[in-house]
Amino acid sequence: MLSKIPGFKDFEKYMKDRNFSYNSCEAYKKDIDDFFIFIRYKPLNEISEEDILNFVKDLKKVYSNNSINRKIISIRGYLKYFYKNGIIDILPTEKIKNLSPEKRTLEVLSFDEINRLREVMDDSPKEYRDKIILDILYETGILISEVLDLRCEDIISDDYKVITQIKGTKINKVPLDDLLSERLKIFIEEKREKLRNKNTKIFS
After folding, report:
1. Residue 150 burial by CB count (10 A; 0-12/13-18/19+): exposed, middle or buried?
2. What is the rounded CA–CA span in Å between residue 161 and residue 67?
3. Which structural domain, as residue segments, surrounds residue 42?
4. CB-based burial of residue 141 (10 Å sphere; 0-12 exposed, 13-18 middle, 19+ buried)?
């Protein structure tokens, strides 16, 4: 329960001030919540290195090293915030190291496979949307989570040719070609409302 975590509102404000993405904030919330449930909501100044090591040991029963490392990073970031602000005197994560990452082989769709996917989709609002998502992924190389997080205000040109990509504190301008920008315009101005989408996100 986030309301029981000491200092969480301050850290949440810090994340918003630093322009953390929505997905990053949600990941931090879950990781930090899991940790404090495990240590039974200890006060910040009572958290020890042993608490974190025991938490990692417990996680190994279920999670991969990569997932555990993400949780370690979240806990480290959380406690470091309070250490830097003088709330705690000792940083219990100082000697905690990440686990050895697991190697993963990425599978990438070929251009022909993308085209075959597009060919089986019609121009109904839902499938038109899915085609645009595929095209943005293939043309720009941005992550699927970033595409699904796009909001109307992230389109920063009237002709739909530039979108913004936020990575932590960095904002990138991502250009779209003429054909894709035209299809995106058609979706937003003509087809999106037929999905009864009241979300501020373009594709959700």
Report:
1. buried
2. 36
3. 2-85
4. exposed
Same structural domain, 16 and 59: yes
> Which has the closest alpha carbon to 13: 72, 73, 85?
85
Instruction: Give domain status of residue 183, yes or no.
Output: yes
| 90-127 residue pLDDT tens | 999 999 999 988 776 667 777 788 888 888 888 888 89
Q: How far apart are CA 28 and CA 78, in angstroms?
A: 8
128 shares its domain with 63:
no
Q: Are the CB atoms for 129 and 123 separated by under 8 Å?
A: no
26-60 per-position pLDDT tens digit: 999 999 999 999 999 999 999 999 999 999 999 99
Residues 6 or more apart whose Cβ sits within 8 Å of residue 99 = 56, 65, 68, 69, 72
In a domain, 22, yes or no: yes
Please report the sign of the dihedral spanned by the C-alpha atoms of residue 74, residue 77, residue 79, residue 85: negative
User: Which of 118, 136, 104, 141 lies closest to 202 in space, CA to CA?
Assistant: 136
Does residue 102 lie within any of the structural domains? Answer: no
Q: Could you give the residue ranges of the DSSP H alpha helices within the chain?
A: 8-17, 22-38, 49-59, 65-84, 111-119, 125-140, 144-148, 178-186
pTM higher than 0.70: no
